[in-house]
Structures are given as C-alpha cells and as structure tokens.
Amino acid sequence: MGTFDGPGLRLVAFLQGCNFRCLYCANPDTIARECEKTKFLPGDEILRRALSEKAFFGRRGGITFSGGEPTLQAKALIPLCRELKLNGIHICIDTNGSIMNRDTQVLFETVDMVLLDCKQLNADRHRILTGRQNTVTLKTAELLSEMKKPVRLRYVVVPGYSDSPEDIDQLGQAFSRFSNIDRVEVLPYHTYGKHKYEALGWEYQLDGVREPSHEEIDQIVDRLEAYFPCVWAQ
C-alpha cells in the first residue's frame, strides 16, 4: 500500500519490464521482461487482492499499476482494469508515455487517472537520461488531453541533468496548455535504489550525483507555479 502513487491510499502493483534505461531508476530489478525472481500473477489474483483491500481505499484510493513500464503489458491489463472498474475500484497507471498503439489507447480510456512521467523536454538530454527519445511521450500527453483524462505530471529533479531554469521553463511551456493536468508532482532524485545495482552487479551511473536540497526543490516548485495552478513536491 502507498500514498504517493495517485490519490488516497493505494495498492501498488509493480509490473516487470521497461523500455527505458533511466540513469536514476530506483527499481532496476524491474527493467528486464523476465528475471529469476519474476512472479507471474494472473489477473484474477490481482483482482482478489484489490477487493480484499478495498475497505482501506476509502473514497479516493484504489490501485496503481507501476513498474517497470506497465503499458508494455497493456493487452493483459485491459480486461483486468475493466473488472476492477466493474467492482468500483479507482485505477491509476504510472507510465513514461512512450508506447502508443491501439492497446495503450484502450488502456488509457479504461483507467481513471494517468501518472505521466516526463523525464526531460530537451531531446538530447532526455536521451542521455533514459536512452530513448521523448517524442511519443509528448504525443501521449496530447492524446490524454483529447480524452480529457485526468493526469498527474511527474518530474524527477536530478542535479546537472534536469534541474536548470531552462529545463523547468521548457516543462511548463510544453504542458501548461493541457487543462486535464490535475497537478504537477516534483520528485527529488534519491539514491534509495543504489543497493539494488550492487546486488545485480551493475554499475550505478549517477554515483557522486548529490540529492537536491529542500531549497532547490522549493525554487523549482515556485518556478512551476507560474505555469500550473497546483504543484506538489514529495
């Protein structure tokens, strides 16, 4: 259960597999589509767990599908999300927005809210951070706006990679026109997942990069408030 992955108290399901290679990924164990510790859970088991926790959700909580990148499993998620909806459970999906096809479109139509992770607006800096381009993420934002789907825009602040005034202004200029954005969530870079890289025998690419200070995060929030009516920092 968590309180940072959508409104209210939520059951969070971390799905395996991701098409990004974010330098600061806190869950590197979820990148591979399969690994030794991967556990297959049928949709009816996830539904059962969600129903067993429903009393704790209250009026605002529900289930959030995170990862990894959950839209890689969009086809399997669609029938599960329809069952969850039939049982009155609020659904969020936390996505990098980089996959656009018929299945992801149907999935976005089915869920109640999308947590859209924008890593960087500058294409070159985005590729450095993630190993991928950001053009589809921007198209996904357009699609969600056309659907009038509630969105929480999430942005990780990494010193030296995504924290400059230009970075913040580009984010505001690109997304402030979307009235379906419920709020912007500013997430400070942290090293909580560093030990996972050591366990996997991988090099941690941001070794030596400091965490942003509270003052720096406050300044970024202030700057974003010029573009968005609701900005929140973790």
Automatic annotation (TrEMBL):
Cofactor requirements of the protein: [4Fe-4S] cluster
Major localization class: cytoplasm
Stretches assigned to the Radical SAM core domain: 4-229
PROSITE patterns in UniProt: RADICAL_ACTIVATING, RADICAL_SAM
Source organism, top-level taxon: Bacteria
InterPro entries: Aldolase_TIM, Organic_radical-activating, PFL1_activating, Radical_activat_CS, rSAM, rSAM_sf
Protein's cellular compartments: Cytoplasm
Pfam families assigned to the protein according to its UniProt record, in alphabetical order: Radical_SAM
Keywords noted in UniProt: 4Fe-4S, Cytoplasm, Iron, Iron-sulfur, Lyase, Metal-binding, Oxidoreductase, Pyruvate, S-adenosyl-L-methionine
GO cellular component, one term: cytoplasm
Reactions catalysed: glycyl-[formate C-acetyltransferase] + reduced [flavodoxin] + S-adenosyl-L-methionine = glycin-2-yl radical-[formate C-acetyltransferase] + semiquinone [flavodoxin] + 5'-deoxyadenosine + L-methionine + H(+)
Catalytic activity, EC: 1.97.1.4
Cofactor binding, note field: Binds 1 [4Fe-4S] cluster. The cluster is coordinated with 3 cysteines and an exchangeable S-adenosyl-L-methionine.
Any one GO molecular-function label of the UniProt entry: metal ion binding
Family that this chain belongs to: Belongs to the organic radical-activating enzymes family.
Record's function text: Activation of pyruvate formate-lyase under anaerobic conditions by generation of an organic free radical, using S-adenosylmethionine and reduced flavodoxin as cosubstrates to produce 5'-deoxy-adenosine. Activation of pyruvate formate-lyase 1 under anaerobic conditions by generation of an organic free radical, using S-adenosylmethionine and reduced flavodoxin as cosubstrates to produce 5'-deoxy-adenosine.
NCBIfam families found in the cross-reference section: PFLA
Name recorded for this polypeptide: Pyruvate formate-lyase-activating enzyme
Protein source organism: Porphyromonas gulae
